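User: Second chain of the day. Same drill as before.
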Amino acid sequence: MPRLTRLTPNTAVGASRDLLADLVSRHGQIGDMVSTMAHSPAVLGGYLQLSRAMGRARLDRRISERISIAVQALQGCRLCLDSHVNAARAMGVDEEEIERAHTGTSADPAIAAIIALALQIYREPTSITDEQVIALREYGYSDRAIADVVGVVALNILTGAFNLLAGLTPESDSSV
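Assistant: Same format as last time:
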């Protein structure tokens, strides 16, 4: 059961009201997470900005979805995990690779290496080594794609932690 209430453009105040009104006018409806984030215009605005920025990432979306699956499998946000699994499927990632992502790996060594980096960023960023970054470059990842991993992880931490705090689950979400 949700712990925080949903807000609408009519019930939100200030900057949150404006952000929600803009989202509703552009998309018609908004999901529980966004409408609940509106309690904090700073959180909602930050989420929207980071989400838009990550839309311009150079990291292949099929890889970033697998990273998101790995992070959310650890973090425990079922709403996020389901969303990323569905997105990966829609992009043609097969079920075996989705299952591997749940365990933080891939059959492709290059993808397994970037997922491993993402999980280190999530768990223990001080353990990242120069050799790992060199190996990622040898797999063909640019510095920009490697840097994008931090953004993917950060976005997942934000959304997953918020949903867990707010008590949002797949059953409570009426619109993603």
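The chain has nine helices and no strands.

User: Great, on to the next one.
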